[in-house]
């Protein structure tokens, strides 16, 4: 989600604030006239008029839109006429009295400020009109210059721009007539003209309205914009809108923490209320892309995020008399940033840099000598060998013991040698796997799983080896010797397969009063700490006996024998203790050649010859707040989020190193952390806090400094015709 400047609304907002034990009613004039706090029950001095419906811009500047038919549940209102959609239904601008014009699109940028600076620069340099239009479908700001009566004239202008450094310009056409012509609606053989700007389509059932981009609740509106083209808009209740936002912004399949999703729901609701009607001139309130909040309609909805929306219904965050601009981003890289560093024109006190981790470790010690390797130390405790030397006879004895403990038939054959082929035959005969292997392993699976087969192995033995590898019982190159570690892993896999040992994986939640709580598939499970207990810690594949040092959210694997906890392994996260460490963007590297950077800079500063860059300013998180881009005898400074787009990086939390390899293009190596702008709530961090047992209000007050909980009331919105006239 990208941030945006504050845009004041045309309506009044009412909220109910709770501060400590004192509840107050807050009445705010969003035109900036007044803001007052009153006791609950006091009569408000202004009408409370948060509109219950939100208008979401789905697409901009369509030439026409045809809705597929059919169904008596679909209705359309076009002017004075209401019809059932029983045939394909097409809406387009009415016939125009004038010819269109040709223009040059010189850029489509993510950063509004960069786009407006470029338009101003082009207008001054070329002496021709230039403007910026937001594209609701892509989330980009289109920069267009010139107005040409013919295509040939436009092509000549494009050539002049290319000579001046704007080589990416291309010709587009725009209508030139007034929107007073209205709209034309066609259904089957019928066609009629609609006065005004609006056509509405809705469903009388819960199915919603289906268009090419998906299915949507509420109404679909077609709005004739000032450029004489159509904007596609979805109007629906605020809470239904959030059902399509929360899962797209924070996927509940990957981030299945209910408290984290509830924090996201409140942040998204607060952002929507604060930025309501930002795009009033275009007929909608908010866009459906990361420029505002990603909105996916019915297809995005998910039961867990629906629950998060429902359990926080109407709740927003407030600061200083109004709802906050609750900005958020995917991954903050361990620390969020002050808003002024990323968005230099802003300085909201609640958008301050905060760490994305908490101090303190929970320790738990086992009784094994430090350094003992896993799984050997655990298996030798649970299934001890009778002799020190690892032999075929000794291994067969341990397997017979395992069979007795599992209540499984004893092996019928003898283990003659301790090699892979002998062990494969022995285990397959004992476990009666011949039919299983034939049923579940195809001929193509064998070479894929095992690679080149060593001499002497029969096709049946190879199929059995592939099946044992699939079960995790016996893996590794067939020609390699069988190591002691592999043998112990095989025994542990057999113990799990025959249910003498149960394995439970989850994330550490808490340790209190001798009980360990872990999160397993969004459910907290509780285990009593007993003795003896083996604890192992380390990176994946490098686990050794050691005391555990855990923070909530750490990945744990628990081993239980007869329902009692006997061992725990802890995987140490390479990215450290930050809340957002589970994100794949917690660290990243990008290499950009000089040629690539030159093209990126020239798109924003036509004619500039890129030669290098310097970092001038960093914020509290380490994010780059300002850079100087060097050219031939000149330089330009870029600041804030525009740096991210100008260098095409995931975030502005980075270092830059110059590389000049002798056999390749020179360029810059950027090493960084985070994904997004890093201001406000960190979505992956919210998930991490939820895993660690924090409530959604704990999460929100951590990331937004000094805010209060609030709730908003909604009232019916004026019908679109009246609302359009009020504009």
Number of helical stretches of at least 4 residues: 18
Mean pLDDT: 85
Structural class: alpha+beta
Q: Please summarize the sheet with the most strands.
A: 7 strands, mixed
Shape from CA axes?
A: elongated
Cα radius of gyration in angstroms? 32 Å
**Beta-sheet strand percentage?**
25-35%
**Helical content class:** 25-40%
Number of strands: 42
Low-confidence stretches: 2-49, 720-727
Supply the number of structural domains: 6
Strand order of the largest sheet: 8-7-16-19-20-5-21
Measured distance between first and last alpha carbons: 27 Å
In words, what does this structure look like?
The longest helix is centred in the middle third of the chain and has 17 residues. Strand 38 and strand 39 form a beta hairpin. The protein is α+β, with helices and mostly antiparallel strands. The N terminus and C terminus are likely disordered. The strands form 11 sheets. The protein has a 7-stranded mixed β-sheet with strand order 8-7-16-19-20-5-21. A 7-stranded mixed β-sheet has the order 28-27-26-32-33-29-30, with no helix packed on it. The protein is built from 18 helices and 42 strands. The two termini are 27 Å apart. The protein has 6 domains: 204 residues, no CATH class; 82 residues, no CATH class; 74 residues, Sporulation related repeat (Alpha-Beta Plaits), CATH 3.30.70; 86 residues, OB fold (Dihydrolipoamide Acetyltransferase, E2P); 108 residues, no CATH class; 85 residues, no CATH class.
